[in-house]
């Protein structure tokens, strides 16, 4: 997987530098013509130039080839601040996230602090993922299979009808699930996250991942931005998948799961810096899972 990427990069460097189509054939054709025309000295210069270009592209190549860590920003419960605060702050930094929405809370007259469907659609159109967090946010393990099925199916259909495509990612309210519920969730969705997980910073290992038990770093108002930054650095180092779980992002916190906007910006700046140097990638939940599938497919080649 590593070597083909490198050769493609090398070949495309030749293509870019010399106006060729970037295939390996054109590389050797160029080499032959260069030798005939002006001798081997020029060919050596061309090789050196390509080497410099390849080196300049080495970091992005590393990130693209899946050898970087991955960070996913997730937001539960459909709070309005996810549109008014989190969405623009991630957008300014060229990042996207995943919303897990209880579909019955959206456009709810009695809950003005929640998102509207127009806002959800705008977020979705910007490349964010919209996942399901049931309809009414119950404890799934308290429900009969029939009642749980209604929560899973109706939420899926509500979201599909409103944004134009069905959600594939699920978050059980309160992180509450049991084996029977996971079996039901897996009939409708491709993944399910936990409400908490390993906060030591070592996050999910893409090589040993249960996509229905994805650990998340549950962020509370007391969580220091430096703890989230440290976890991101660890994910970069271990090439693991770190999934942050946020709720409300506000100027003044009033609950355990509120997170202060100024602290949130510090976290984003830390993640953006690591993203810019090629150490991590920022993807949605389904985007990350897609990458892991690609890696597995590559290994089979
Ligand atoms: Zn929730």
Overview of this structure, please?
This protein is α/β, with parallel strands linked by helices and 301 residues long. The chain folds into two domains: 2-63, no CATH class; 68-300, Alpha-Beta Barrel (TIM Barrel). It has helices spanning 2-18, 24-38, 40-56, 58-64, 81-92, 117-125, 145-163, 179-188, 225-238, 261-276, 285-300; strands at 69-76, 98-101, 129-132, 169-170, 191-192, 217-218, 241-246, 248-250, 258-260, 280-282. Strands 1, 2, 3, 6, 7 and 10 form a six-stranded parallel β-sheet that branches. The longest helix is centred in the middle third of the chain and has 19 residues, at 145-163. The radius of gyration is 23 Å and the shape is globular. The chain starts with a helix and ends with a helix.
The CATH superfamily of the largest domain bears the name Glycoside hydrolase/deacetylase
The secondary-structure class comes to alpha/beta
Q: H/E element string?
A: HHHHEHEHEHEHEEHEEEHEH
Distance between the termini: 8 Å
Q: State Rg.
A: 23 Å
CATH architecture of the largest domain: Alpha-Beta Barrel
- The CATH class designation of the largest domain is Alpha Beta
Q: Share of helix among residues?
A: 40-55%
Quick overview:
Helices cover 50% and strands 12% of the residues. The chain contains 11 helices and 10 strands. The strands form 3 sheets. Strands 1, 2, 3, 6, 7 and 10 form a 6-stranded parallel β-sheet that branches. The chain has a two-stranded parallel ribbon with strand order 4-5. Strands 8-9 form a two-stranded parallel sheet.
């Amino acid at each position: 997987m590593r070597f083909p990427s490198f050769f493609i990069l090398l070949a495309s460097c030749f293509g870019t530098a010399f106006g060729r189509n970037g295939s390996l054939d054109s590389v050797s054709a160029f080499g032959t013509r260069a030798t005939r025309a002006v001798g081997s000295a020029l060919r050596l210069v061309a090789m050196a130039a390509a080497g410099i270009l390849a080196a300049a592209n080495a970091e992005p190549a590393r990130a693209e080839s899946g050898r970087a860590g991955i960070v996913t920003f997730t937001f539960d419960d459909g709070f309005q601040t996810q549109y008014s605060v989190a969405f623009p702050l991630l957008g300014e930094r060229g990042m996207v996230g995943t919303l897990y929405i209880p579909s019955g809370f959206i456009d709810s007259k009695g809950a003005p602090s929640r998102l509207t469907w127009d806002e959800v659609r705008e977020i979705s159109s910007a490349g964010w993922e919209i996942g399901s967090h049931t309809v009414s946010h119950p404890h799934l393990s308290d429900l009969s299979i029939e009642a749980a099925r209604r929560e899973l199916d109706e939420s899926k259909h509500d979201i599909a009808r409103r944004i134009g495509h069905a959600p594939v990612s699920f978050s059980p309210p309160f992180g509450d699930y049991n084996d029977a519920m996971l079996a039901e969730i897996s009939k409708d969705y491709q993944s399910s996250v936990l409400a908490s997980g390993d906060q030591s910073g070592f996050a999910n290992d893409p090589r040993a991942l249960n996509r229905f038990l994805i650990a998340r770093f549950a962020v509370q108002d007391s969580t220091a931005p430096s703890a989230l930054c440290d976890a991101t650095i660890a994910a970069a180092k271990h090439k693991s998948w770190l999934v942050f779980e946020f709720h409300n992002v506000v100027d003044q916190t009033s609950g355990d799961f509120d997170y202060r906007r100024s602290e949130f910006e510090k976290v984003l700046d830390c993640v953006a810096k690591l993203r810019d140097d090629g150490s991590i990638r920022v993807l949605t939940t389904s985007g990350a899972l897609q990458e892991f599938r690609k890696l597995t497919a590559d290994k089979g080649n």
